Amino acid sequence: MSDLTPVFPANPAASYQAHREEIDAALKTALGGTNYILGEQVNAFEREYAEWMGGGYAVGLANGTDAVELCLRACGVQPGDLVGIPTHTAVATATAVVRAGARPVFLDINPETYLLDLASLEKVLVSERKLAAVVPVHLYGQAVDMTTLMAWAEIHGFQVVEDCSQAHGALWDGCKVGTFGHAAAYSCYPTKNLGAIGDAGVAFTLSLEVAEHILSLRQYGWRERYISSEVGMNSRLDELQAAILRVKLRHLDADNARRRAIASQYDSAFSTLEIMRPSVHEGHVFHQYTIGTGRRNDLKAYLAERQVVAGILYPQPIHRQPAYLEYVDESTVDLSASEEACRTLLCLPMHPHLSDEEVARVIDGVVSFFA
């Protein structure tokens, strides 16, 4: 079957080709400008993103990792503070916590959704240890229960920084993720639902005070040019990436709708198979379509023989990774659901530019494997 064209789990190049004329025109406009650092393209993208979110403040940043870190710092997280995060997520979340000077407290996931397990968090909250912040990760495109989480934040006095890097446009109770917490971080890595052609990120908040703090931190801690009021960093969104993101943002809702349509086809085809599929709600935007099986590695190899490329995004939970072993003692909860997910989850091809024929090939490969 080597003569078949591979079906990739993500395809940023296809996204560029789909919007090539608009992107090329936007880049030409940006290159013809006179301010290549925090110029009109960045300003316009920040305005348009905030409008798309329904109001608030957006700050363009260099990447999603910086976005999490700066959101935590702008929300008052101090060196040595404890920050709760799921251990089943991209390591960037933990990286940002540590770079902010805080210590991650690893929490488990709900095995039915693969999202932050609130029961795991509750065990920490009722202990004697005080969390300064919690980072709910809206993993794979689905929202954490933000109603419960924000109620607990009010009771226990912790800040909430939503990690929306895989969930641009996802909804909880009819509202977009990113609008619930004290701040929200987004990655615009090329494979994300809203992807640049290179690294990029966004911070979002409904608080003007938090937004102004992030604006200062992204450029050396300046509130007055050339005068640092605190130690910041250089995390400025590039003008060219901002121009690209402005184009992509106009198509994001349609792209998310296509992702949902593909997921619906997968759901129907796999309904009788002996695989684990996450419990989903209507606000899911399917950054990934995940399935769980004890035969994960065999299925991945079987699909590869048919030129269908499936992914294992998180082969090891963060608390098992060498760089983060020193923080394991902060966690006093069971993390077994996360470890099981790392052994069994497989991500099938999912992006808005999959053709109907490619979707059919994915379905045929999975169904025939279990036949």
Q: Mind explaining what this structure looks like?
A:
With about 375 residues, the protein is α/β, with parallel strands linked by helices. It folds into 2 domains: about 20-245, Aspartate Aminotransferase, domain 2 (3-Layer(aba) Sandwich), CATH 3.40.640; about 250-370, Aspartate Aminotransferase, domain 1. The protein is built from 12 helices and 13 strands. The chain has helices at about 10-20, 20-30, 40-50, 65-75, 90-100, 120-125, 145-155, 210-215, 240-270, 295-305, 335-345, 355-370, and strands at about 55-60, 80-85, 105, 130-135, 160-165, 170, 175, 185, 200-205, 220-225, 225-230, 290, 345-350. The strands form 4 sheets. It has a 7-stranded mixed beta sheet with strand order 1-9-8-5-4-2-3, with helices on both faces. The chain has a two-stranded antiparallel ribbon with strand order 6-7. The protein has a two-stranded antiparallel sheet with strand order 10-11. Helix 5 links the parallel strand 2 and strand 3 (about 105). The model has no long low-confidence stretch (mean pLDDT about 95).
Binned strand content: 5-15%
What is the helical fraction, as a range of percent?
Answer: 25-40%
Q: Structural class, please?
A: alpha/beta
Per CATH, the architecture of the largest domain is 3-Layer(aba) Sandwich
Number of strands: 13
* Strand order in the largest sheet: 1-9-8-5-4-2-3
Which CATH C-level class of the largest domain is it?
Alpha Beta
- Oligomer state equals single chain
